[in-house]
Amino acid sequence: MKPVRTRFAPSPTGFLHVGGIRTAVFAWLLARQNNGQFVLRLEDTDQKREVAGSDEHLMKSLKALGLDYDEGPDIGGPYEPYRQSKRLLGYKLLAHELVEDGRAYADPYTPEEVQAFREQAQAAKKPFLYRNHRPENPPLWDGTQPLRFKSDPKPYKWHDAILGDLSTGPEVIDDFILVKSDGFPTYNFAHIADDNDMQISHIIRGQEFIASVPNYLNLYEALGMEPPIMATAPHVMAPEGKKKLGKRDGAKDVLDYIRDGYLPDALINFIVSLGWNDGTEQEIFSREELIEKFCLDRVQHSGAQFDERRLLWMNGHYIRELSLDDLYEKVAGYWPPEAESYDDSYKKQVLRLVQERLKYFAELPELTRFFFVDLPIDNNLIAEHKQLKKLEKSDLHELLEAAEQSLQQSDFSLADLTERLNALLEASGQKPAVFFSLIRIATTQSPSSPGLADSLAVLGKERSLERIAQQLAVLK
Questions:
Q1: 206 forms bridges with which residues in the sheet?
Q2: Residue 236: which H helix or E strand, with range?
Q3: Burial class (CB in 10 A: 0-12, 13-18, 19+), 382
Q4: How far apart are CA 180 and CA 69, in angstroms?
Q5: How far, in Å, CA of 299 to CA of 121, rounded?
Q6: β-strand pairing of 37-40 with 5-8
Q7: The predicted structure's pLDDT at residue 68
Q8: Which of 77, 243, 306, 315 gives a 20 to 30 Å CA spacing to 355?
Q9: Strand, helix or coil at 66?
Q10: Residue 48: band (very low, low, confident or very high) from pLDDT cuts 50, 70, 90
Q11: Cα 245–251–256 angle (5° rounding)?
Q12: In terms of domains, do 175 and 223 share one?
């Protein structure tokens, strides 16, 4: 058995979103499960599409998710360099070998001539195959023309570790470009050379490459190389489920999720679940469980729909599992600015109350600001409340005044507050959605809050009664 060596080989053409990084997660899990190596390689041979800073962004994204790689552009390794743009000499030597073996030739045609061939095939209602126009006496390749692979059309059968046994006929094999006129190799050539040089054992990639595999197998044969194990993962579909998830569908940068306060373990769990399950109803997996249980033959064949609501639920679950001290440490940069003057003890009391409702850390200011500053009276909170808007102002004033009188006698312990609020509710004959909502709005000026008694206990007697008095003045 070969050592398991997997790779993630993105092009530095922009940010990574969830759909793009899933192959990295699958490859990382497979390597870690088998005590193998996970390699990061940057496929930067398309100089026109490269976006400045993307390489650093890609590496930062992997590290933010805890996808540690064993070899890569920034840490080196036994098969350096890990940028394709630094490996041009090796591609050139391999290309010359193919020319000498009669398996590659200089492409003499202009783009206009190639387009004319396409139009001829279209007019004849036949698929366009470049090999049907292969020149009889191609010029000597001097590096200024594209270099094409001289294919050997034949049927192929191969096993895909996810999709199973696959086969194609010779009609899909064609002469594709190996090296462009700018001297840079194409992906179709470079990744085969690099995977062989770096002894990659498994290639995990998206379905967009499946149609090209027969051509890759043809080139492996011409080079005398053994193909790695191939695994084709299904697309991550856009929320409506009709097309592949892309940046135009609002797919967020992975680092944006991290900046918004999504936990790396929750993101990994969610990403793996897009197309994989262990055959049970289990949805929450620790990273250790994923490493233990992940297997390619449990990856589904059909597309997996991206559902951000499920990600919110999953991240909320991970937040609730944290100890208060751990959570307090992680949300350090997310408090509203008004919280700066408050001590750790008070902020931990607030955090304990909102932990159950917190779905991601960037929500913290919205959920907690009223604990640190007196918000202005918002009349719309009552005017637009489904139940409260039905009552006259005088009725609201009467209810809130009764609450004020009772709370003035309270020691503001949680037990006493709970008892008094329940007694007030019973005496008023109102529903909790009416009476408790009125007190909550008066004391928080927020559309929602944690449990009323808990919130009042943390706010304290003086602040709570001052806010009730302000609301009473408005109602009067």
A1: 233
A2: strand 236-237
A3: buried
A4: 30
A5: 38
A6: parallel
A7: 97
A8: 306
A9: coil
A10: confident
A11: 150
A12: yes
Claim to verify: residue 409 and residue 342 sit in the same structural domain: no
In a domain, 125, yes or no: yes
Residues 112 and 167 in one domain: yes
DSSP state of 83: B
Q: Which whole number is the average pLDDT over 221-238?
A: 95
d(CA 268, CA 258): 12
Residue 36 is assigned to a structural domain of this protein: no
| pLDDT tens digit sequence for 98-151 | 999 999 999 999 999 999 999 999 999 999 999 999 999 999 999 899 999 999
- The CATH number for 184's domain is 3.40.50.620
Query: Is 180 a residue of the active site?
Result: no
pLDDT tens profile 243-290: 888 766 667 899 999 999 999 999 999 999 999 999 999 999 999 999
147 and 181 part of one domain: yes
Pick the catalytic residue: 247, 389, 393, 431? 247
> In terms of residue numbers, what domain contains 131?
87-233
- The whole-angstrom separation of Cα 108 and Cα 125 is 25
pTM for the full predicted model: 0.92
Measured CA to CA, the distance from residue 401 to residue 473 in angstroms comes to 10
The answer, yes or no, to whether residue 238 has pLDDT greater than 90, is no
Alpha carbon distance 361, 329 (integer Å): 11
Query: String of b and e for 18-56 (b: at least 16 CB within 10 Å)?
Result: bbbbbbbbbbbbbbbebebbbbbbbbbbbeeebeeebbe
Of how many residues is the chain composed? 476
Q: Decide if 334 contacts 362 (C-beta within 8 A).
A: yes
| 180 and 298 part of one domain | no
Q: Does residue 10 lie in a domain region?
A: no
Together in a domain, 314 and 378: no
Sheet of 202-206: strands edge to edge?
A: 37-40, 5-8, 202-206, 229-233, 156-160, 164-168
Please provide the distance, in angstroms rounded to a whole number, between the alpha carbons at the two ends of the chain.
82
Segment 309-326 mean pLDDT: 97
Examine the domain organization and report whether 320 and 403 are in the same domain. Answer: no
Dihedral (CA of 165, 170, 172, 176) sign = positive
**324/414 same-domain check:** no
**CATH code of the domain covering residue 284:** 1.10.1160.10
